[in-house]
Amino acid sequence: MYPYTFIQLTDSNTFFGHEIVLFHDFSLASLMFILTAVLLMFKALKKKKFVVLAYKGSNMLEFLWTFFPVFILISIGLPSLYLMYLLEGSFKGDLTFKVVGHQWYWSYEGGDFCDFDMSSYMIPSEDLVEGQFRLLEVDNTMVLPYSTNIRLMITSYDVIHSWTLPSLKMKVDAVPGRLNTMNIFSFQPGSFYGQCSEICGLLHSFMPIHVEFVNWETFLNNVTEESFN
Amino acid sequence: MASSLLRVALHRVVSHRSVHLTKVRPSMVIGFGGPVQLAEDRDPNLNPIFHESLTNPIPDKPRTLKYTGDLATLKEMEVGDWKKLSVEDQMDLYNSFFGASIADMCRGQDDWKSVFGACMIFISFGLLLHLFIHLYINPPYVWTTLDEDWVKASIKRQIQSHAGDITGYSSKWDYANNRWK
């Protein structure tokens, strides 16, 4: 969850989330290096003490301003590719659930473990209780067990949506006619919010996601209740 | 056509001020690459594609292509002994070839002050309009989730659910003593 004046990435609750935060810090360090170097160059050029002898062409200069950007791009690109393959790598899920995007709500279905089907609509601002989060609260939350390998299969019923959980560093596009798979493993119980991240029409900003990670006993009780309902 | 006239008009607005803080050389006022000139005002003896700058200080062709009148006389004297040329003659010959000296190019202009002033005038009009709308047109205040009571309740909810236990509110709450750390 975000404090009110937060500008950083949220705390991660997954292994991949930690890796993503580390990569983000590394990328920002590279960007800060580039920005500092350019600003120092601006400051130095302002003094007008430099005389350009080879102002009509310089092979060494062209080599330098090609090599250094390529080097920086490769240094950012290789960890990025490594992280991408790590996220997409082989993963054995103990539980499988389906997430289906609609205009403009999410629906969650049980997979091999249990059979349930529920829709999750946003609670309007007028119906909120004091202390609840505007545009984030839903009527039916998705309850999952923590410390469990969970496979999510995400698709859409109509247009492209995107199922996002910033606290778990997850963002998966819900594409109609396609099943996108993502794996979740939360270290600890908690309540995590997200919002649809792909423009999908009039109420795109009003279809939030709320996932609660609980212990197995609570999860089984919840799942049983949902199945009967 | 209209855009070039607008450029000329705007430049005349910003370049005519009561006090000229930089010393303007006569050669800097006339010529391409400096202030805008309409085709009918252009001197045919001058190089229309003359350009010089700090990064290209020696132009391919001089500023004056055809020497007439006094300049033609000076050009003939230039062939002979330079000690016969006075300082003013040397300066005229220099100005006929170059548009500005290196010192002139480094000095810079103070046109930015007029531009900055015009921008501030437009910005102030915008701010006045915003103030008027805020005072007389905007609807009365309604409750929001950013009211103090609501924010406090939401922070309490976050602490109860242990949200943000590394860098968020829960990390700053002392659960043992039920107060902020």
UniProtKB/TrEMBL annotation, chain A:
Membrane topology summary: Multi-pass membrane protein
Ranges in a coiled coil: none
Gene Ontology BP terms: electron transport chain
Entry annotated with the keyword Transport: yes
GO cellular component terms, A-Z: mitochondrial inner membrane
Superkingdom of the organism of origin: Eukaryota
Regions that span the bilayer: 20-42, 63-87
Main function: Component of the cytochrome c oxidase, the last enzyme in the mitochondrial electron transport chain which drives oxidative phosphorylation. The respiratory chain contains 3 multisubunit complexes succinate dehydrogenase (complex II, CII), ubiquinol-cytochrome c oxidoreductase (cytochrome b-c1 complex, complex III, CIII) and cytochrome c oxidase (complex IV, CIV), that cooperate to transfer electrons derived from NADH and succinate to molecular oxygen, creating an electrochemical gradient over the inner membrane that drives transmembrane transport and the ATP synthase.
Similarity field: Belongs to the cytochrome c oxidase subunit 2 family.
Designated name of the protein: Cytochrome c oxidase subunit 2
